[in-house]
Design goal:
The structure holds two protein chains of two kinds.
Chain A lengths: L2 E3 L3 E5 L4 E8 L6 E6 L6 E6 L3 E5 L2 E6 L4 E6 L8 E8 L7 E3 L3 E6 L1
Parallel strand pairs in A: 2-11
Antiparallel strand pairs in A: 1-3, 3-8, 4-5, 4-9, 6-7, 7-8, 9-10, 9-11
Chain B lengths: L4 E3 L2 E4 L5 E6 L6 E7 L5 E8 L2 E4 L8 E4 L6 E5 L8 E8 L10 E2 L3 E5 L1
Parallel strand pairs in B: 2-11
Antiparallel strand pairs in B: 1-3, 3-8, 4-5, 4-9, 5-6, 7-8, 9-10, 9-11
Classes of the chains: A mainly beta, B mainly beta.
Chain lengths: 111, 116
């Protein structure tokens, strides 16, 4: 089976940096996605990692360690609009990309 | 470019009734996925179409759920008869054909189904 764990909730202050962790156990791992979801809206793609290392995209970065089954999403210079749920998801088979999600981390950014 | 759209946005029905959810993927996307999130749980995969064919329906809960994708364009997901545990948010996602380095899925806003 598969198991994906991420914290349920996190809080941070505007302008700060926050790291959201995700650990996973799965066979045939073929990549990890991070999605952002605002309440009542569609999940939107943030990042994809398949090789070990850090991928940087503006204020957001994502890290992967395949040997440790671990990823994190780093958000810098937090803004109020970053308050959302952050979903970690893994894929198991190349090309099909069926996503297996964690429960999501609700991030609340306060002034 | 229009994103993935879903209809209706909300549906409230009584146990035993039938409901049909619709998803219009991004034009040209061969892959269409259905997912569901029940309260307090993670988003879970239901099934995957490649064009009009069901590629993987291992996540479908039971035979009360029927998904179709006529002509490989829009898809419908029918629940008949609906039960209380079917309540949740049903998401549709689409992606381009296989062969890309990664297969980013674009999600719709979901249909919130409430079964009373």
């Amino acid at each position: 089976g598969q198991n994906i764990d991420q914290p349920t909730e996190m809080t941070a202050t505007e302008g700060a940096i926050v790291q959201i962790n995700c650990t996973y156990q799965t066979s045939g791992f073929n990549g990890l996605f991070w999605y952002q979801q605002h309440a009542g809206e569609a999940p939107t793609f943030l990042s994809y990692n398949v090789l070990d290392g850090l991928e940087e995209k503006g204020r957001f970065s994502s890290f992967l360690s395949r040997s440790k089954g671990y990823s994190y999403l780093l958000l810098k210079e937090l803004q109020m609009k970053d308050s959302a749920s952050y979903l970690c998801a893994v894929t198991r088979r190349w090309g099909y990309s069926t996503l297996t999600f964690g429960k999501g981390t609700m991030l609340l950014v306060s002034p | 470019e229009a994103g993935v759209t879903q209809f209706p946005s909300h549906s409230v029905i009584e146990k035993g009734q039938t409901v049909t959810l619709r998803c219009d993927p991004i034009s040209g996307h061969d892959n269409l996925y259905w997912y569901r999130r029940v309260m307090g749980k993670e988003i879970k995969f239901l099934l995957h179409f490649v064009k009009e064919s069901k590629q993987d329906e291992s996540g479908m809960p039971n035979n009360r759920f029927l998904a179709e994708r006529t002509g490989g364009t829009y898809s419908t997901l029918k629940v008949q008869p609906a039960e209380l545990e079917d309540s949740g948010v049903y998401f549709c996602a689409s992606s381009q054909e296989m062969g890309s380095s990664y297969n980013e899925q674009f999600f719709g806003p979901g249909t919130r189904l409430t079964v009373l």
